[in-house]
Amino acid sequence: MSEPAVVHDQAVAKLALADLADAHLTRASMVMTLAALGVLLIVVSTIAMAFGSVHIDLMRAIADRSSPDHAILFGARIPRVLMGAIVGAVLAAVGAALQALVRNPLAEGGILGISGGGAFGAIIALVVFSRIGGSDVAIPLCAFAASLISTLAVYRLAQVDGRLEPFTLLLVGVIFNAFWGAAIMLVNSIVNFFFTHSIIFWLMGSFEAPTYREVAMVTVLGGIGFAILISRARDMNLLTLGDDEAAELGVEVDAVRRTIFIATSVMIGAAVSVSGIISFVGLIVPHIIRTSIGADHRMLIPASILGGAAFTVAADLIARTAIAPSELPVGAITALCGGPFFIYVLRREGRKSLVL
Amino acid sequence: MTVKLDKLQMSDTIKTTVNPSEPAPPQNHDSQEDHEGRRDHDDHDVRTHRYDRDECAGREDFPAPGAFAIRAIDLTAGYGDRPVLHGVSLDLLAGEMLAIVGPNGAGKSTLLKILGGALKPWSGSVELEGRPIGDYDRRAIARRLAMVAQENLVAFRFTVLEIVLMGRAPHLGAFHFETRHDLEIAHAALERFDLIGLARRPIQELSGGERKRVFLARALAQSPHVALLDEPTAFLDLRHVAEIFARFRELRVERGMAVVATLHDLNAAALHADRVLLMKDGVMAGYGTPETVFTAANLRTVYETEVHVGRNPATGAISVLPGSAPPRRR
Questions:
Q1: Which of A179, B73, B276, B329 has the fewest C-beta atoms lying within 10 Å of its C-beta?
Q2: Predicted pLDDT at A39
């Protein structure tokens, strides 16, 4: 081979490689996307802190510690925005992870009945421990345990001949969701009227008056969960090819699956124990990110964390301001957006799976 | 042959560059030790490296000619308490191709799963490059052995290039991004299967034949020494079948890749494989060259139908044609 031919070949090959940078996830594109979503979250959060049933001046609230603005901002708005952000981040990240695990873009904590299980656990703990004390600790613990049991049961029941059937899984999840809803209503009808408000709160999902302690609890557990999910992001990519394929590419499938199930159950349990059932965030946010940016979980998980936070803070802003001074439950807002969205995705994916 | 496990998995030294235009030097088993377990993505090498397909290919580590690729000894296996395989043995050297043929339900796919380490046999053993496969962890197996399943479904909208890059996963740490070296290998794999034009397309938009080529390219990106292919040509048209066999012939010659494929097409097996394993009901009904195994008597027994065995006048390979209609049983 002559020298110029070699040089030419190299030039062509280099061009082709550089040309393909948009066909896969690169570190540069990931940093750009996450930075953009971070800015979006900051903007949405700032707006959400300024607006509400009463308008406050953020500058005065920060400058003047004795102003009512200061009290509203630090006593109500900031914990509420933080809670919305962290719960939304948890729900979206869990949604993205569960979708990878079951290879179905319709999986989500609420739809699969995991949140419902968590809410049931939380309500039982509330009713039992409110008399004997210690409900602060018992509610999240029971919520984790119940969501983990619910996850495992749904997963086990959805297996047909050792294989996970996507539509069976959805069906089992929907049934669990309805079952937990009925169980909660049953508890509601036999306990003291005093608990009814709390029970409705868990069913509808709301960020009403969170404490900094609750925010800290969800932030710590959510943060640990985020770290675990991000560290398994590449394995999630491989799991979408199938269990056997992932194993042939070096993934310890059972161990990864177990890790993700436990992490997501704890995350959902933590979120549900403070905010109740907020559906569809885990469906909408990962889906939008996947179709607009890409399916690689190394970016999808962190982008869902930021996007889920921004989405939920915005939804809560609508919940607080739409019929001010009254309030809508934020879970109703997300479900109102999410129901039609779910149908849209189901129609789209359903058609496609016939082609596959 | 004894190879120390720590060497197998931890070796980090920069390997010697093999120039594929020259035949690799003959190596005895001792020097072959130095060729195993190499990680080929060290950053130093990547930074100073200029892209050149030949050189790039040379930087992947190839098995020595004549080295054992994969060997199975007296495998018995099954699911639950239902036995599927009885006493199956095979061995394959670097650069060879083995075709596993037999009627539906003969245990071909089960055998492939065992060879890939995905299923544990009840008894018997599998050796990958001279060591029991149980001595490797999953990632170490994945750096040496790639498997392409019969069906290739992907739930999400990954691009073709992303799917092919997934083949690099066993060579990368959990938090590493693909290096330029990994991209070069993926690019070469795309090129080999004529997929460059499809690189940025979502995998769902591809036809069955295109998707099959993507998964073969993904397996190639693993830089495996052994490729296990489950019905690689099912549902493909004649041209694509010929192309896929041609690509694997190149890979066998260029880099000593050993190929094990389950095939329904006896003529393709006779034309392309060095050895064939004829199976029926989990038992070996014949093992050896196509000439010795594909006899009319063997095939009649295994497939329970009349066959005509002749020679393809163009290639000289054994050709198998259906004989007279089978007698209606019972």
A1: B329
A2: 98
